[in-house]
Amino acid sequence: MAKVYPKLEGCLDIFSYPWLAEPDFLVWESDTGLICFILRHPDLKHLCGYVCIGIDITKEEAENFEVHGGVTFYERDYSNEIYLQAKAQGFDLSDWIVGFDCAHAGDLSPGIETISEGSTYKDIEYVKAECENLAKQVKLFLAGISHTCKS
Length: 151
What we know:
Strand content: 15-25%
Helix content: 25-40%
Shape: globular
Number of strands: 7
Number of helices: 3
Strand order of the largest sheet: 2-3-4-6-5
Oligomer: single chain
Number of domains: 1
C-alpha cells in the first residue's frame, strides 16, 4: 500500500521522502526471465516501469495488460527519451518495450510543487512489483502466441 506524504516544505530527509534514497535507474531479470527496468522521470521525478518484450505485438494487445494506470508506453524507437535515458545509464535496449508510469490522478510526483491531498508516492518496491506483474502477463501472452503457432 502506498503512503501519503505531506507537502514538501522545509528540510527534506530520506525518512520522510523515500525518493531521495531511491535509485533513478534499476534493471533486473524478472522471475519470468524477461528484462525489466525502472526509470525516474527527469522532470516530474515519478517512477516509470518497463518490460522488454522481445517481439512486436500490436498496441491494442499491449494495452490489454493490466498494470498501474494502464500501459502508457509501447514502442521501439531508439530516439525516444526512454531509450536515451536507459542508454545514458549504460543499458543498451534493443527490444520492443511496454511500460507504465506513476503520474496519474492520485499519484504523487515529487517534481511537482503542488501535491493534491491524498496523493500517494509509488515507491521503487511498488513499481518493481508492478513490473514483475506485467512481466508475468507478457510471458503468458507470449506463451499463448507460441502455442497457437504450433502445428
